[in-house]
Amino acid sequence: MNFTSYLDTPQFQALALHLMIGLEIPIHLFGVFCILFRTPGSMRSVKWGMLNLHVWSMGLDLGVSLLTIPYILYPALAGFTLGVLTDFDVPMAYQAYLLAVLIGLLAVSIVTILENRYFILFGREQWWRHCRMPFLIFNYIFALVYFYPAYYYFPDQASALKEVFRMLPELPQEIYDAPVFVLAIDFHYVVIPVFIMSNLLVAESGCFIILIYGNMNERTKKLSLSRHTIKMQRKFLRALNIQTAIPLLILMLPMGYLVTSRIFNLYFQSANNLCFIIIGLHGLFSTIIMLYIHAPYREVCKKVFHCKLEDYSRRWSMVSTVL
User: Which CATH architecture best describes the domain 6-322?
Assistant: First the structure.
């Protein structure tokens, strides 16, 4: 049996993600430059939190698009990798764990930036100042270890492969010849840790958002903060919410398909490939939104690209004159 479409092939997956990483790296580095050297004094309190979020967002992009390049045979939790780590013979079990940790650390970095806002605005005056460091340390440690149950219970590969190929339709010979790795036969070992991690971080994020806006409303009524300060903080929080929410909404598309695929036992390899391409684009969207939504970075982009466009325009006009 041959692949029905080029979109189904490992070659398409590798090519698409390689092209993406070539686009992503310069944009990510420009984002790092803006955060480090163009963050104004008024945003100094969130500078390192934004850098932390950006680094882990960039890390997930690199993990998917360069280091691993997953080729997943979903709805089976099985597949193989085509990235740099495979070229260096890094076991696929380690690669799967790395991707899970990168996703966890990215989610924790979102909670961290919200916690930082709450602490800067209100928490320094409350009991939270004594709890924040243990809270943050717990989150980062949990992100590093939450996937360990799935890793510990990786199945015997020989029998697991037979089960995977039994549940999937007939596949191209190239897939049968590939070093397919089975992450799990029993989904509980994967779903339960991911469910606990995601729900914990969503609950934490929601709590901080409620606390921030609740305290703002209370301070506004008491007039303990000026209207200008409240207005600026609300504007900045809206920018942070957009910066984190839009990429997460983008991730919901592939995640929604993967859940549907599992429930109805649907196997479309081209859709699987496109899901991981969208996941690999997450950080790129996040960086572009960050550069656009925050006014200081937007001004840097205008200056840099306006100068470039003017330079190109002058060059073309000189060429036209010579001709």
Answer: Up-down Bundle (1.20)
